[in-house]
UniProtKB/TrEMBL annotation:
UniProt keyword annotation of Transmembrane helix present: no
Protein name: Beta-glucosidase
GO molecular-function terms, A-Z: beta-glucosidase activity
Keyword Hydrolase assigned: yes
Organism, scientific name: Umezawaea tangerina
Gene3D superfamilies: Glycosidases (3.20.20.80)
Protein keywords: Carbohydrate metabolism, Cellulose degradation, Glycosidase, Hydrolase, Polysaccharide degradation
Residues of the active site: 181, 379
BP terms from Gene Ontology: cellulose catabolic process
Any single Gene Ontology cellular-component annotation: cytosol
């Protein structure tokens, strides 16, 4: 992705200096439709798998659901004004498929398209660049009833939907992503069932993975066929850095396995390298998932993208299991012989380990892997239990520390020559955090879900100052 014609780089800085980012660096924040919009039955919107999942007892903490969430469907102008106050140059949002096509295909709901028209126009009026994501996990329930991502037909329906939305918004939106984190859709949704649609079928999860990637490739083909030359298309993947305590062969092998099932099995085929042979061999015992792969599929999946969206939150610690045939519990279908270890250090409220070193290592590795393909950090952030003081202020020093440490990691990667073009913080707003309901707060802006009052947190104000200076301090956790 190019934000301007400039391709400038920054050099290393001493601890006494501010760490400056390239002059065209893209600063922004991200959200997702189901997590913030609310109005789940308004204006003809059809149900999604997350509406169904949230309505199923025991699936979402406290029985929370996506309505009213942050009421962004009605308060989008207020939220865009917040973006302006923070100095954001870009806003990554997702389009709710079932707002546009209530049954996933067929009749178009014009009121759904009109909402995104209004949102995009409001962003542009405030000089905030729209970055559209077409799928952030909210598959129309009507398509799930026909097999969802286990059904090859869903990939074609996704391409049709992508073409439709792009045709409507493409006169104003240049930056596009197809899928957000297909690892979560495929594995959390179909292998260990903690996300919608809540299945626990390892083979089905791998089949869903293939159809998600196929849908991505088909969608890029469809959009590029009608796009102006300045449009840039991407896929957003969530990555981890797998770490073992020892450097023996057994430890290196479990790192390889986890890296394969989290990172390479999604990235390699998009880069035209096919599914990694070692990972295919590792998971062969779960069933013949490759029966769904047809001639030409891998060429479609490898349809060139213009930039790679990178989401990162925490590392994954692993160790060899005593029994190489031990089936590892957790999110990875077909993983054997590995133990997933507890995270370490001061954790976020989500229980995630905080490690900017792992982020820097990941970006450096990706720089070697993707070559000259530009990278945008499309999500990075932390959840903590925020406290509102007697004056209504939200001081969140741990989120500030996470933000600054991870921006320093981005700077380290850029200084080493990795082509990182932007950073979009997760998240603009506190929101519905999937199976955790409203219990986890990632926002730069606090949302009072009873009153819908928004309050910029110290972390949001910190990011605003960083954007204004286009730099972070080399040390410490205060930005003057």
């Amino acid at each position: 992705m190019t934000t301007t014609d400039s391709d400038s780089r920054v050099g290393p800085a001493s601890a006494a200096q501010a760490l400056e980012f390239p002059p065209d660096f893209l600063w922004g924040a991200a959200t997702a439709a189901f997590q913030i919009e609310g109005s789940t039955t308004a204006d003809g919107r059809g149900p999604s798998i997350w509406d169904t999942f949230a309505a199923t007892p025991g699936k979402v903490l406290a029985g929370d659901n996506g309505d009213p969430a942050c009421d962004h469907y009605n308060r989008y102008a207020e939220d865009v004004e917040l973006m302006t106050s923070l100095g954001l140059a870009a806003y990554r949002f997702s389009v709710a498929w079932s707002r546009i096509l209530p049954r996933g295909a067929g009749a178009v709901e014009p009121r759904g398209l009109a909402f995104y028209d209004r949102l995009v126009d409001e962003l542009l009026a405030k000089d905030v660049r729209p970055v559209a994501t077409l799928y952030h996990w909210d598959l129309p329930q009507a398509l799930e009833d026909e097999g969802g991502w286990r059904n090859r037909d869903t990939a074609y329906r996704f391409a049709e939907y992508a073409e439709l939305v792009h045709a409507r918004l493409g006169d104003r939106v240049q930056l596009w992503s197809t899928l957000n984190e297909p690892w979560c859709s495929a594995f959390l949704g179909h292998h260990n069932g903690i996300h919608a649609p809540g299945l626990t079928d390892s083979q089905a999860s791998l089949e869903a993975m293939h159809h998600l990637l196929l849908g991505h490739g088909l969608a890029v083909e469809a959009m590029r066929a009608q796009a102006p030359e300045d449009h840039r298309f991407s896929l957003v993947l969530n990555f981890t850095t797998a770490w073992a305590d020892n450097d023996d062969s057994a430890s290196r092998d479990v790192v390889r396995k986890v890296d394969g099932l989290h990172n390479r099995i999604f990235l390699d085929p998009v880069l035209g390298r096919g599914y990694p042979a070692d990972v295919v061999e590792d998971v062969a015992w779960v069933g013949d998932w490759q029966r769904v792969v047809r001639d030409g599929d891998m060429d479609v999946i490898a349809t060139p993208i213009d930039w790679l969206g990178v989401n990162y939150y925490s590392p994954t610690r692993v160790a060899p299991a005593a029994d190489p045939a031990h089936v590892t519990e957790g999110p990875f279908p077909g993983l054997r012989g590995a133990e997933l270890l507890d995270p370490r250090g001061e954790l976020t409220s989500f229980g995630w380990e905080q490690s900017a070193d792992a982020f820097a290592e990941l970006l450096l590795t990706l720089g070697r892997t993707v070559g000259d393909l530009p990278i945008v950090v499309t999500e990075n952030g932390s959840a903590f239990h925020d406290e509102v003081d007697e004056l209504g202020r939200v001081d969140d020093p741990r989120r500030v520390a996470y933000l600054l440490d991870h921006l320093r990691a981005v700077h380290t990667a850029i200084s080493a020559g990795v082509d990182v073009r932007g950073y979009l913080a997760w998240s603009l707003l506190d929101n519905f955090e999937w199976a955790e309901g409203y219990s986890q707060r990632f926002g730069l802006v606090r949302v009072d879900y009873d009153t819908q009052v928004r309050t910029v947190k110290r972390s949001g104000a910190t990011l605003a100052r960083i954007i204004g200076r286009n730099s972070v301090p080399a040390t410490g956790y205060e930005v003057a």
